[in-house]
Amino acid sequence: MASRIEAAASSNERSMIQVWDPVVRLFHWSLVAAFATAWFAEEGEMLHEGAGYVVLALLAIRLVWGVIGTRYARFADFVRSPGTVTRYLIDILGGHPRRYLGHNPAGGAMVLALIGMCALAAGSGWLMTTDAFWGTKWVEALHEISANATLAFIALHVLGVLLTSWQHKENLVGAMITGRKRAD
After folding, report:
1. Does the predicted model carry a pTM greater than 0.70?
2. What band does 8 get if pLDDT is binned at 50, 70 and 90?
């Protein structure tokens, strides 16, 4: 009996593949922590501003890693045309989307959207601290709107992860922790 359990565990280990490298996983969870810290900290406080600077630094690292990183981290692996993203979203609604080892087309589009929105929120927050834009209402409005829009994108991202996990019967949150996904 014990040898069957060991064989099944060994077979399961062989059927897993490393997809998300440590840089991607550390970026992802650090960005979650930094954005949450900035969101819950009072605007204008040192903690809020510090978290915003961490967001900017993380984005810079991710942009570089998106060009020189491992296969599934590179933008070239997951950035798809709008038509491909649209077809994938239609397949999701039909209940039978294709499974991808890396980001699926909708996930790739969401990565770009989240990077852009986080950059806009953190960048506009930084502008508010400069002499040139201190107290400028449109920059303050841009910061608030982009932070709220980022939160909306995060909600869509989480819903997409949950839906895809359910449709493909795989734990994508776990994969972003361990870096491993089913190979099939």
Report:
1. yes
2. very low
